Amino acid sequence: MKFFILILFNLLSISSVLSKPDRFEKRDLCAFELQSYGNCYLYTSPENEKEVENTCQALNDEKCKFLYENGVSFINECRGENGPENEFKVKSAYLQKKAICEKDENGNNCPYKDFVINNKNSANDFSKSFETFYNETCKSEICTLAAIRAIDGFYIAKIDKMYNGFNLTSEEQEQQNKLSSQEQALNEAMLSFYNQFKGFSEKLKTECISQKVTPSDNKLNTDNKVNTDNKVNTDNKLNTDNKLNTSGIENLKYFSTQYSFSALILVLIWWMYILY
Question: Which residues are listed as membrane-spanning (predicted)?
Fold first, then answer.
């Protein structure tokens, strides 16, 4: 399971979201236009301080700020049915970057940065790693709010979207049911990862936030707000409301067959890790 955590961190760092093949061409037109925004649009999990610095530069770049404030709908190729999906990519990438680069009330880096780097680079005990992160994060209201938004809007929302974001045809569903034991193991690991992050988020909200934010403050409001700086206009551009389909996650839809080969490669890496 520890090694699967490393795999899943890498999978969720990929900016593309699983989708139906027949939507690929139109989505590519939008993605092609968004390439000009480079680091604003994409997110790659940083592995060291230098990469963190590069990640944080996007938050202060004027071109990036324009994208975060206006969303993708100003690009013709990103309108219509592809708009919400690409808006989701921009939003989730922003939330993750914001939490990694956020500073506490005293101007120090929030613990979320080290949490992301450490869990990507080592097969440590994930739960113990969270406990350290949790204890340090709860000391700062700013860091706590940023962490909750990133966990909800990046990790949890991405997994939910990967498995429940699209309605499968009967033929596609039949293909999904023909998974190997290795692919099923990967899906089970993804579900475990999802449940762990749900627990992390809930603990931050109930045991940490409750000590710092009164209900009247309404500072979290994760339904449709990206952050208190209003960097991403989600009120009318992102049609997800960040409300996770938690009732459906137990009935997981498996990876599209176009990702079966990638899943098998990951499992082979896991076997090599165990043997050697």
Answer: 259-275
Question: What's the whole-number mean pLDDT along residues 79-98?
Answer: 85
Confidence of residue 169 (pLDDT cuts 50, 70, 90): low
Residue 109 φ/ψ, nearest 5 degrees: -60, 140
**Alpha-carbon 3 to chain mean position:** 19
- Residue type (1 letter), 200: F
- Expressed as residue numbers, the domain containing 7 is 2-275
Q: How confident is the model at residue 238 (pLDDT cuts 50, 70, 90)?
A: very low
CA distances for 73 relative to 110, 151, 179, 189, angstroms: 32, 25, 37, 35
Residues in the chain, overall count? 276
Torsion 124-273-198-83 (CA) sign = positive
Selected residue with higher pLDDT from 205 and 269:
205
User: Do the Cβ atoms of 15 and 85 come closer than 8 Å?
Assistant: no
Structure-model confidence comparison of residues 25 and 128, the more confident one: 128
CB 34 within 8 A of CB 64: no
Total domains in the chain come to: 1
How many Cα atoms occupy the beta-carbon half-sphere of 220 within 13 Å?
25
Considering the entire predicted model, what is its pTM?
Answer: 0.67
